[in-house]
């Protein structure tokens, strides 16, 4: 069973939340972030190339132009592979654990699986970001040494760029 | 709670039979290890399970039935399988069934006894988790082997969650030994049922490793004993040994080889990985060294090198002479104190002249020395690079001497200046209290003190310039030596075996698992696929080499250092040898 709703994040972009219900013991929540907009890409490329052209008129060296093209391409590839998140998924399997997957725009997927035995609690935490207070979901992990202590606080979804308002 | 059934992917296409595995009551999970096919005699199956249980300390039992309907209308098989529940009783009894041509399975888990808590259903919900037996076994995710005096049950019960699953699969080697070509009474299906995986080379290596380790360990202990004998601890020799980086490198290699060829088995996969990394790096080192050796000894290159060495040393000395002449004149437009300038300049020039004559004295023997030194390349490229660094240090010894003279002179001057400046202001350094106190001086003390202060102050630019120039020269030499040391440390500590594993067999480096939900239909049990998860690479796939520092070693050395087993005098010695230090702060009157 699937269920889709749309929200907006703290920066104003549109987010889509999908809820999938596989069985009474397994559920999946999927947040899709807004795609890379053509407008911002064109703006950044134009800025870099105008700056490179300005330098070229000063130095009369054509290597600057090739370097600018190279930098733009590498920067775009790096951004797509390491920074731009397309979709984040939270899979909860009863008595096995919780799995968080982030898939990037270049197709890379990074997964984290936390066993149920290590999870102490799932809470909504408040954090101060610039001038506002934002709420984010996080998982508390048990401390192996101290039975009542907390060893780690793991935010569920990436804090940058993908918050539910 | 939901019952989790861990099912091996290799048995998904096996014929109908009995499910054999282990039941973990704490997690209500059933780990299926193999499928026993028809026909079988129940007594023989029970004997096999008892044997496996005794050998592996794992509670292996018949968990249920597996039904793979290849043709339609096999109802009789279903009834037959249900009857088996009476012969092998297990609580709960698992019944897995797969239809021909259908991806979805049906699972039932029945409990015969009345449930302890009221309201719990007689049938449990089942969740299927597929796992690849071969990869789980070879990735060594299971916790390390418990000590023999512990009860196996205690160790496994302590391991929570998925670690219990991995431990079960890893300990059941006995069950996986028989394949379908064996003529045994019981037919099993598991990951090795198509033939036990083994490699002749690996088996031979395992058999041969024992005697080889003994032999090489004995040889290495002889060498270490010889090097630790009292003759080498006497003052001149021990001082020289601590200064030469070749000795440091040889000692490091000796330690590494002793660690690799020790007869003690590796306790956990980390130690095994470390041993393998050290061995591979030693092999690479020796291979590169032999390549260098063959290159050097071909086409009389050593002769060319020896011939080029003396003119190069001459050229360096000439450049230094020009530099000193420039300093003795008016360097960079500054006006130096003529007398002091001439004295210092002539002193250094004479020193240089001595050095040149020494080099010319040595020149007939250089080719012979180089030839013998070139032979050391068969010990490894790192040893050759260390020798090169030592040769550079020896050839630029005069620069080091100049630096020391300039630094001492400058230090003395600064000490004198600071103490006379305090006198000029009417203060004194109190050694007892370690602070500056006021003091009333006599008139003649003040007069002489101020006079000396002015003299030293006006001689300061000359000394400072000499000090600056020679420090820069020394820094240059140290930078070159530092580059060589960085290369040596890189070869020493790059984990090539782990890099190779990451490329060829990534599942060996797995650090966890991840799950994927397979196609799902309502009213059917949930199916998940458990896959191995590799930790993300810290630097685009390359683990950051651990040595970009002077005298850095593998973590083993760091651990030993913490345990106080290494002589703390060795580490600073190497630093002293390569680092430039500004003159030690002088505190004095």
Automatic annotation (TrEMBL), chain A:
Family matches, as Pfam families: PIG-H
Keywords in UniProt for this one?
Glycosyltransferase, Membrane, Transferase, Transmembrane, Transmembrane helix
Q: Where is the Phosphatidylinositol N-acetylglucosaminyltransferase subunit H conserved domain?
A: 89-158
**Could you tell me which species this protein originates from?**
Acinonyx jubatus
Specify the protein name. Answer: Phosphatidylinositol N-acetylglucosaminyltransferase subunit H isoform X3
Q: Which GO terms describe its biological process?
A: GPI anchor biosynthetic process
Query: Which GO molecular-function terms appear in the entry?
Result: glycosyltransferase activity
Q: Where are the transmembrane segments?
A: 36-56, 62-82
* Pathway(s): Glycolipid biosynthesis; glycosylphosphatidylinositol-anchor biosynthesis
**Which InterPro entries does this one have?**
PIG-H, PIGH-H_dom
What family is this protein classified in?
Belongs to the PIGH family.
Any single Gene Ontology cellular-component annotation: glycosylphosphatidylinositol-N-acetylglucosaminyltransferase (GPI-GnT) complex
From TrEMBL, chain B:
Q: Which residues cross the membrane?
A: 278-296, 369-396, 445-469, 475-499
Any GO CC annotation of this UniProt entry? endoplasmic reticulum
Query: Which InterPro entries does the record match to this protein?
Result: PigQ/GPI1 (IPR007720)
Gene Ontology molecular function, alphabetical? glycosyltransferase activity
In its keyword annotation, does this UniProt entry include Transmembrane? yes
Q: Which UniProt keywords apply?
A: Glycosyltransferase, Membrane, Transferase, Transmembrane, Transmembrane helix
Q: What does the entry give for GO biological process?
A: GPI anchor biosynthetic process
Q: Where is this region: Disordered?
A: 562-589
Q: What is this protein called?
A: Phosphatidylinositol N-acetylglucosaminyltransferase subunit Q isoform X4
Q: What is the lineage of its organism?
A: Eukaryota, Metazoa, Chordata, Craniata, Vertebrata
């Amino acid at each position: 069973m699937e269920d889709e709703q749309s929200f907006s994040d703290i920066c104003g972009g549109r987010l889509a939340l999908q809820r999938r219900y596989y069985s009474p013991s397994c559920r999946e929540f999927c947040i899709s972030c807004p795609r890379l907009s053509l407008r911002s890409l064109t703006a950044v490329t134009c800025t870099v190339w105008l700056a490179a052209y300005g330098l070229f008129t000063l130095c009369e060296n054509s290597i600057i132009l090739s370097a600018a093209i190279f930098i733009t391409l590498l920067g775009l590839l790096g951004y797509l592979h390491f920074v731009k998140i397309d979709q984040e998924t939270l899979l909860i399997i009863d008595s096995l654990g919780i799995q968080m997957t982030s898939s990037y725009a270049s197709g890379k997927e990074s997964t984290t699986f936390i066993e149920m035995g290590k999870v102490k609690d799932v809470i909504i935490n408040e954090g101060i970001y610039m001038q506002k207070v934002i709420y984010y979901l996080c998982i508390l992990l048990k401390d192996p040494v101290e039975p009542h202590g907390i060893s780690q606080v793991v935010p569920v979804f990436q804090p940058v760029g993908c918050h539910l308002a | 709670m939901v019952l989790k059934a861990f099912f091996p992917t290799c048995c998904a296409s096996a014929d109908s039979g009995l499910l054999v595995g282990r039941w973990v009551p704490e997690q209500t999970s059933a780990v299926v290890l193999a499928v026993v096919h028809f026909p079988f005699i129940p007594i023989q199956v029970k004997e096999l399970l008892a044997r496996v249980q005794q050998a592996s300390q794992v509670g292996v039992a018949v968990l249920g039935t597996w039904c793979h309907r290849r043709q339609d209308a096999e109802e009789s098989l279903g009834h037959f399988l249900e009857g088996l529940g009476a012969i092998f009783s297990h609580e709960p009894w698992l019944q897995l069934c797969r239809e021909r041509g259908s991806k979805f399975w049906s699972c039932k888990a029945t409990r015969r006894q009345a449930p302890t808590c009221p309201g719990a259903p007689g049938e449990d919900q089942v969740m299927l988790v597929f796992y690849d037996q071969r990869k789980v076994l070879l990735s060594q995710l299971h916790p390390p082997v418990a000590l023999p005096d512990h009860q196996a049950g205690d160790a496994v019960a302590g391991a929570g969650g998925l670690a219990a699953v991995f431990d079960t699969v890893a300990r059941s080697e006995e069950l996986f030994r028989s394949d379908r070509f064996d003529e045994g009474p019981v037919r099993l299906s598991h990951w090795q049922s198509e033939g036990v995986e083994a490699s002749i080379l690996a088996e031979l290596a395992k058999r041969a490793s024992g005697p080889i380790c003994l032999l090489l360990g004995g040889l290495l202990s002889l060498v270490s004993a010889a090097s630790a004998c009292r003759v080498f601890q006497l003052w001149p020799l021990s001082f020289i040994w601590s200064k030469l980086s070749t000795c440091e490198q040889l000692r490091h290699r000796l330690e590494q080889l002793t660690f690799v060829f020790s007869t003690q088995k590796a306790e956990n996969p980390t130690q095994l990985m470390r041993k393998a990394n050290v061995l591979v790096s030693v092999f690479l080192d020796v291979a590169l060294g032999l390549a260098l050796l063959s290159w050097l000894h071909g086409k009389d290159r050593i002769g060319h090198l020896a011939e080029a060495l003396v003119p190069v040393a001459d050229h360096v000395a000439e450049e230094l002479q020009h530099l000193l002449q420039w300093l003795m004149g008016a360097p960079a437009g500054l006006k130096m104190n003529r007398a002091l300038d001439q004295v210092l300049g002539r002193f250094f020039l004479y020193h240089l002249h001595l050095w040149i004559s020494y080099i010319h004295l040595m020149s007939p023997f250089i080719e012979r020395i180089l030839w013998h030194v070139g032979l050391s390349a068969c010990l490894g490229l790192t040893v050759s690079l260390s020798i090169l660094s030592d040769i550079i240090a020896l050839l630029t010894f005069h620069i080091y001497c100049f630096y020391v003279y300039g630094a001492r002179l400058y230090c003395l001057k600064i000490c004198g200046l600071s103490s006379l400046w305090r006198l000029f202001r009417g203060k004194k350094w109190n050694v007892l209290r370690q602070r500056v106190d006021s003091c009333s001086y006599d008139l003649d003390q003040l007069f002489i003190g101020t006079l000396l202060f002015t003299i030293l102050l006006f001689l300061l630019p000359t000394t400072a310039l000499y000090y600056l120039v020679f420090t820069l020269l020394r820094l240059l030499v140290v930078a070159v030596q530092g580059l060589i040391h960085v290369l040596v440390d890189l070869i020493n500590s790059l984990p090539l075996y782990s890099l190779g594993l990451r490329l060829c067999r990534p599942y060996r480096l797995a650090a966890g698992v991840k799950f994927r939900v397979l196609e799902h239909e309502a009213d059917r049990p949930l199916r998940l696929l458990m896959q191995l998860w590799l930790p993300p690479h810290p630097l685009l796939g390359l683990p950051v080499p651990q040595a970009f520092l002077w005298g850095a070693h593998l973590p083993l050395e760091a651990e030993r250092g913490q345990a106080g087993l290494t002589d703390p005098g060795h580490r600073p010695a190497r630093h002293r040898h390569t680092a430039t230090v500004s003159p030690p702060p002088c505190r004095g009157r």
